[in-house]
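Bug report (template v2)

What were you trying to do?
Predict the complex of my protein with phosphoenolpyruvate.

What happened?
Run completed; filing so the output is reviewed.

Input:
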Amino acid sequence: MRRPFVAGNWKMNLDLATGRALVSELRTRLPASPPIDVAICPPHIYLFPMAKAVADTPIRLGAQNCFHESSGAFTGEVSAAMVKETGCTYVILGHSERRHTIGPKDASGRVQGETDAMIAAKCRAAMSAGLVPIVCVGETLEERDRDQTEAVLSRQIDGSLAGIALDGPEKLVIAYEPVWAIGTGRNATPEQAQAAHRHLRGRLAERFGRGMADGIRIQYGGSVKPDNAITLMKEADVDGALVGGASLKASDFAGIIEGCIRAKGL
Ligand code: PEP
């Protein structure tokens, strides 16, 4: 069985004091050794202090991004090895905000964010540095309405994992995050999530073989809250959650973790 995994993406929220307070409250709310993996993903600048804060807890650390080059004249960038050195286990790559919100706009006002090729280069760098990438994929509302969801997910999986050789299913995590569900309060239904996850697993099987695909964790992300976590996590191919807004409040994040544990009967 795949070990479920719940991660909190803090995005550009909290400061050092509130981040520390959140971790110390989580410490009191989480079981000493939960039967699932749990991680927080603070901004880069807080990775070292947060590594200290979670040191004697079951909480692992993830970064929100890394650069694909290993060193050199890349002002403001952070390499995968640098991220690893802070104590991170994971790195989120290709989050929809990096694909669709952050970046220069073209003439029609569309953001030119990260491409699948850029994400694949980061993914290869992350794996070489010993990090487990959490590769985010997901369709926009327009693409869903046009019935293009599966085509978009296939394209993103193929493109974002180009050139990746996988020697164990635990070395990669996928997050299915429909863009229309992120930060909107509108989550995918459990049926929509399961259908997308099943499709993704099928694509991973074509790419890496059925045995490997069956072991790769696929998180759902998009307005996960304590009250919808159980029904979403009950779906067979939903192996946990990537949580944005609700990961900023200890009671909500702990509620989602508990919901995941219950849904999986652990
Ligand atoms: C996210 O940013 O990955 C996310 C899923 O955000 P939220 O939970 O706030 O929708």
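What did the reviewer find?
Residues 5-263 form a domain with the TIM Barrel fold (CATH 3.20.20.70). The first strand starts at residue 5 and ends at 9.
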